[in-house]
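We treat protein structure as text, and this decision shapes the records that our systems exchange. The remainder of this section carries one protein's record, kept here as part of the documentation:
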Amino acid sequence: EQILRIEQLEKEHIEQTNAQKFRFFTNVSHEFRTPLTLIMGQVEVLLMRQDIAPSIYNRILSVYRNTQRLKNMVDEIIDIRRLDQSRLRLHVARENLTTVAKGIWVLFHDYAVQRGVEFLFTGPETPLETEFDRRQLEKVLNNLLSNAFKYTAAGGRIAMTVTAADSEAVISIADTGMGIAPENLDRIFERFWQDEQTNAAVDQYGSGIGLSQSKSLIEMHGGRITVESEPGKGSVFSVHLPLVLRRDDPNIVFVDRNDEQQHIFIGQERIESAPEPDIEKEMKILIVEDSAEMTEMLCQIFKPIYEVHTATNGADGLRIARMIQPDLVLSDIMMPVLSGFEMCKQLKAGIETSHIPVVLLTAYHTEEHTLEGLLTGADDYIAKPFNVRILLARCNNIIVQRRRLQAKFRDTTDNRELVAATSPHDRKI
């Protein structure tokens, strides 16, 4: 009886300690929110400026993304508290699971390059429509990928795979990292538990919260997380989600996507629709993008402001640009037939199209890609995922400044103004 009493007291002490940790984390999280909000606000203002060089812009964008990730981590602590108190609700919509998973993969791609880790993505070509809370699922995938990178050394490999079965969808993250000892497999999902020996080996220590929270969030979806691992060979974490969720669960709120049209999700960000800039509706923009989903989203962003034309590859984009003479071309880089780089180069080389501003979009925002884009004559270079307001503001600024420059040339005969010409054809004329 005395032994049982001692065990009970130890259990109560652990519960009290965990509760104190949560209260501390929650209080600190609220304190962090204010300075993070101020930092993000100032960075957003900088990103909206047009006079910033693209190389500096991409560095500021990296600061913005990491600040956003830090803010999301702060929100996680608050969500865990709500989860413990049964006050967390899932806001579920039917969406393409492959698109969401690939969006997270894009966020980690540059990090993989920096770490020297091969990072692959495989998913079905057809849309995999599934019901889930996007924000919470992104949180789970971020946790699993962060752990995979934490324990995978340079030269290793991480593969993210999306598959579909009869009644469920599966997202698997396989790494060639350190692996997990068999005796610890049952403990890794315990809250605050950490493998001190493994953490010491990689010289990284976490909070012991991520996997526990991920398991709880997936179970709220009616799914499960499984793990297979072998020390020295790596691990495979698999998230199993039902294709259709229960309708009688009081913790799930189903959201109609038609009611969410005023919001646009990009990467980890939920961006409110931006106000329309002060610009004439007669302005034309050409969107060149081979992804139908991305084209549809960009059309939704720009149609309230511009007359929108689209093309699915660089060759069609080049032909349409010559035909309609748009005020701006917004193009992806990796496309069939003709890449965005080559299309931009040909647009800038042609006297009839050399004046058209070109903005390149890419998921691979390395310095090499940025330099190559600028050498082809691109006016701006924006990395995915992007902030909708910032994309709108930068495109609008480019068009407005180009129109003002054209008006100034029309109203002056001073040849000294020609120093502003960027195209060799413009200088000759």
